[in-house]
Amino acid sequence: MARTRIDLSAATWRKSSYSNTSGGDCLEVADNTPGLVPVRDSKRPGGPVLVVTAGAWTPFVAAVKVAAAG
């Protein structure tokens, strides 16, 4: 599979509402990348970024909501 480098230097990151407030599980997503959803660990802003398509992100978030509900 070919890898494509995406320029995220102008990405606007926000902490996910599903991250806890104690600083442990902190997930950030970038909103200003049309069609893509970059995801990173807020404790490692210079670390790796997972980039998924917006179409894949929607069912993922729905599944997380179901799992969190118990």
Distance between the termini: 36 Å
Mean pLDDT across residues: 85
Radius of gyration: 13 Å
Helix content: 10-25%
Shape estimate: globular
Oligomer type:
single chain
Beta-strand percent range: 15-25%
Total strand segments: 4
Low-confidence stretches: none
Structure classification: alpha+beta
Order of helices and strands: EEEEH
- Order of neighbouring strands in the sheet with most strands: 1-2-3-4
Biggest sheet details: 4 strands, antiparallel
Number of helices: 1
What does this structure look like?
It is a single chain. By secondary structure, this protein is α+β, with helices and mostly antiparallel strands. Helix content is 23%, strand content 24%. It contains 1 helix and 4 strands, in the order ββββα. The chain has one helix at 54-69, and strands at 13-15, 27-30, 36-41, 50-53. A 4-stranded antiparallel beta sheet has the order 1-2-3-4. The longest helix has 16 residues, at 54-69. It is globular and about 35 Å long. The relative contact order is 0.17. The model has no long low-confidence stretch (mean pLDDT 85).
